Amino acid sequence: MFNLKVLITFICLISIVSSVSSQYISSRNILSQNASSQDISPQDISFIYKEPIDGLKLYTTLLTHDYLMIWMAFEDEDPECMLPYFHLRIINKITGQTNYIDLNYTLPAEAVCPINIDFLPVANNYILLYYAKTTNGIKGKHGMIINYSGEIMSEIYLGNADGYVALSNEGFINIEKPDEKGISAWHWYSSPNIETGEVVEHNSGEFHVPNLPSYTLVDSLNFNLLDGGFGFLYILKYDETKGSPVTKDPNLQYWRIYVSFLKVKTDLPTKPSLLYETTQKLNNITLKSCTLTYYHAEGYICVMTLNNTITNNNNS
Description:
By secondary structure, the protein is mostly beta strands.
């Protein structure tokens, strides 16, 4: 889970191609853990970062348009855990200047064992650190807005502990996991105030599973939309204990998948639309991802796996 190497070389390769009328600059960024001097061209710009705190190990990295963010952590005896501290290194990809965030805050145990913590750049000079925390016996997801100097600017409650947090061009959103009734609450927040770091809730609402009494919600998936909004997929399975025992319809759809869209600057998601259905008695359906297609057509590509070891017959 942790990388044992603490010496990280960040290389920004810049090649310049000249023509009669114009000059083109193309660049790509490479994070290398074992780059040597012979791998670097004289035209390349390289920055070498060495962790100053003994014992910190590389946990993960995040590349943004302007920065390379390096998350360092102390290992715990349990490989599924880390010690309750947050250390982030933010390297400017152009200048190589490094900001060191060593947060003066001890994270709650439920955030670090097992690891239930992550961060998201939400605006220039601000990140959102979000994690699980129990308050009055209720486990939820909490967040902190932190500036690049490591100062905690504000704290917010986001929702239940298993929520989905994502960035949009209108701030960021938290979409909760559906409850037993198939209701998933969402809360849309503004980007941090450029001076105070404060965020405000733009609006909130709920996704509702289609009202089909004979079906049970099995799983759900959230994904980002091109316009900055969000999509919500529902997997429903026919529950034979709720269906009619008298007749067996050969066209009965045992599995159904629906989708709703929450567009930017709207308060209500769209009515769920049927995306997929099958008469096969599958073991399960697992949604893997939904991403924007970058081909000539507009839309999204959703990947799912169908596990089928059940044979439909008259005795089934």
